[in-house]
């Protein structure tokens, strides 16, 4: 029983130290990468809602959010060309600093022209590989989110 007391105290000290580290990190931008590879309109709209809720919770000035689309996920920006609600949501998120990255491998494989087939994509939005970009961002401390 006496051995358990020092272990409990040590555990409490560890929790206190973790709390201090967490408090210090709150001043930094929260980094997150949203992984989009579905073409289901409900899922895509829900994902945009998740990103907006994320920004609302932490504030756009305290967030560094990237939406990385590959495979069927490019449907998000295809849908934004014809669905005014999706277009408005994407445009608002972009104005709030959210980056939308498009996989070059998927563009090539699906024979899509990002200038004509997708909503508001420029050269700077294209990444060589969507899955590699997600891994790179995770390596830089971005939280992985799969809506």
Task: Please explain how this structure is put together.
- With 147 residues, the chain is of the alpha/beta class.
- The chain has a single domain (29-145), classed as Hypothetical Protein Ychn, Chain: A, CATH 3.40.1260.10.
- 54% of the residues lie in helices and 16% in strands.
- It has seven helices and five strands.
- It has a five-stranded parallel beta sheet, with helices on both faces.
- It is globular.
- The relative contact order is 0.17.
List its salient traits.
alpha/beta, 5 strands, 7 helices, 5-stranded parallel sheet, Hypothetical Protein Ychn, Chain: A, 147 residues
Please describe the topology of this protein.
Blueprint: H1 4-25, E1 30-36, H2 41-58, E2 63-69, H3 75-82, H4 84-95, E3 99-103, H5 104-109, H6 114-117, E4 126-127, H7 130-139, E5 143-145
Helix pairs in contact: 2-4, 3-4
Quick structural summary:
This protein is an alpha/beta fold and 147 residues long. The chain is built from seven helices and five strands; from the N terminus they run αβαβααβααβαβ.
